[in-house]
Amino acid sequence: MSERAAPFHCPYCGEEDLRPGEQGHGSWECAACNRGFRLKFLGLLARGVRRADHEGDEQT
Q1: How far is CA 44 from the centre of its chain?
Q2: Nearest to residue 37, comparing CAs of 60, 9, 2, 4?
Q3: Is 29 a member of any domain?
Q4: pLDDT for 13-44, tens place per residue?
Q5: Which residue range(s) make up the domain with 26?
């Protein structure tokens, strides 16, 4: 079985100085901005992710 995924960057300041939080599973603390946050995996999307980068494309 694989290890659990960990965030690489703080969602607030973008720094990489993260540590697991004391509040339980999925909680992280950023030493750079002194914020705590929690991550939770919600599940896979049924249809997948569609990107909006093709909005300006026109087919002729």
Answers
A1: 14
A2: 9
A3: yes
A4: 999 999 999 988 889 999 999 999 998 888 88
A5: 1-40
Within 10 A of 6 (CB to CB), how many other CB atoms are there? 9
Structural domain count, the chain = 1
Q: Is residue 6 part of a domain?
A: yes
pLDDT tens digits for range 46-57: 876 677 765 565
Residue 3 to residue 19: CA distance in whole angstroms: 16
Residue 20 lies in a domain: yes
CB 16 within 8 A of CB 9: yes
**Paired residues of 28 in beta bridges:** 20, 37
